[in-house]
Write a structure and sequence with these properties.
158 residues; alpha+beta; Alpha-D-Glucose-1,6-Bisphosphate, Chain A, domain 4; 25% helix; 39% strand; disordered N terminus
């Protein structure tokens, strides 16, 4: 087999940077996964999400405080992980990983950035996302009615 390189081809080295944030949540893996897997419901519980519209199978347009992002589901393993690619976001890819821990779970959000210049800009929103998820999941796990949930009343970010 012979491989020919086009004269118009350019190579580029990309130095990707990852950020990881972890939260322990007193809820089942199933509860947490179901919340994360319901993209259209994010504005109900996530401080950063303002509006989400499905624009295709496994694809959403997300409007948040930091702008508009097109999110595409790349992988979903029930009760374990979700992985998304993003266009128009500092993150090129985001993974949400659920691991059983005691009576609850540990959730890790790992975001891949194109470079480290956005690292500090995304740290607080990522922490807020996990705090929002924790508060909502624990509310539901304790028998709370989703219709009674108001993210603005129940979440305080330190």
């Amino acid at each position: 087999m012979t491989i020919q390189k086009s004269q118009n081809t350019k190579s580029k080295v990309i130095n990707l940077v990852s950020i990881e944030e972890i939260s322990e949540i007193d809820a089942s893996a199933e509860t947490v996964f179901n919340i994360l897997n319901d993209n259209l419901n994010y504005p109900k519980w996530s401080l950063g999400a303002e509006e989400i519209k499905q624009i295709g199978e496994g694809k959403w347009l997300t409007k948040s405080r930091i702008g508009e992002t097109t999110v595409t589901r790349k992988e979903a393993v029930p009760n374990e992980r979700l992985i998304f690619t993003n266009e128009g976001s500092p993150f090129s890819e985001v993974g949400e990983f659920i691991t059983p821990k005691g009576d609850g779970v540990e959730v890790m959000v790992r975001g891949t950035l194109k470079d480290d210049s956005m690292l500090e800009k995304v740290r607080k929103p990522t922490q807020e996302f996990l705090k929002s998820l924790k508060t909502y999941a624990e509310f539901l796990e304790s028998g709370g009615n989703p219709d009674d949930y108001n993210k603005n009343e129940l979440i305080t970010i330190q």
